[in-house]
Amino acid sequence: MTRETVIHTESLSKHFGPLVAVREVSLDVHKGEIFGVLGPNGAGKSTTIRMLCGILDPTGGSGTVVGFDIAKQAERIKERIGYMTQRFSLYEDLTVLENLNFYAGIYGLDRATRRTRIATSIERAGLGDRKKQLAGTLSGGWKQRVALACATVHQPPLLFLDEPTAGVDPVSRRDFWEQIHRLAADGTTVLVTTHYMDEAERCHRLAFIFGGRLLDVGTPEEIVARRELDAAELDVDDAVRAAEILRARPEVDETAQYGHVLRVVTRSRTDALALARAVLSEAGLAVRRARQASPTVEDAFVSMVRRDARGEAAAC
Questions:
Q1: Average pLDDT score over residue span 276-290
Q2: 108 exposed, middle or buried (CB, 10 Å; 0-12, 13-18, 19+)?
């Protein structure tokens, strides 16, 4: 991964009438990195990606993508990127091979190059036994492979993935991310939007967006560290009551139940395990088992969103 900048924005904004969908987003994405844009549905992720692709004109701010201005050179950008959405946007009444031929033609590949690139794409995606199968008859995971192959058949330097794993089973999601890391290792820059927090751990760097605003940017480790959180997991009597008691404490950022386990996350590096033991002992609730846990990207995002909702300044 190099420091060559592939995407650069300054105060990028998009308004739809009185609605501010994206508010002054400034970021840089570098060559060969997998850059995740995370946030809940309606946070402004898809609107941001569509401006970067040259599909939507920004209301304010500026930006360049693969060296071209997003407001003035949108058509040049479209020639140099791959784009894959959460919906299977290929032609279901065409075979896998026909879809690849069609998209290779759209991207302007000549006949000889087209044959070579399609053969490479089929082999890389493991589509050899399915190339004559109608796309509409494929399962979600196989459709995803075809969509990715079509989005990269022209070997773009930059690939946009907009919620690419929505509705896909866990095994297919894992296989998909392996393909993405192989592309990045070969020098392709990947920008992916998602609301699956576990996928954030697979990105080199992240941007958290909420309410159209950029809350933080950094590696997963940097983002978690900046929140100054601590976590513990406990097997406790009456987990519902225990959660209510702990949630009332000002040091506690979040409590959540996972089966019989109660997860407690605290602010300002407060010792979550010691606090939970003391508070629950005072309340007469027995803790059967307890262990220290590591704060996650999801813990960090929930903390940032709640802090933002309270109007507190988030560290960036």
A1: 95
A2: exposed
The alpha carbon of 155 is separated from its chain's Cα centroid by a whole number of angstroms, namely 22
Give the C-alpha distances (Å, rounded to integers) separating 220 from 132, 164, 223.
41, 20, 5
Q: Is 127 helix (H, G, I), strand (E, B) or coil?
A: coil
Tokens of 140: 């979600």
Domains of the chain: 5-219 (3.40.50.300), 230-294 (3.30.70.100)
Structure tokens, 301: 């995002």
State the pLDDT at residue 260. 85
User: Residues of the chain with pLDDT > 90: what percent?
Assistant: 82
- Distances 129 to 92, 95, 118, 121, 156 between C-alpha atoms, Å: 17, 12, 14, 13, 25
Number of other residues whose CB lies within 10 A of the CB of residue 74: 17
Kindly indicate the confidence band of residue 101, based on its pLDDT and cuts at 50, 70 and 90. very high
Residue 157 corresponds to which tokens in the numbers above? 């330097």
Half-sphere exposure of residue 73: CA atoms within 13 angstroms, side-chain side: 12
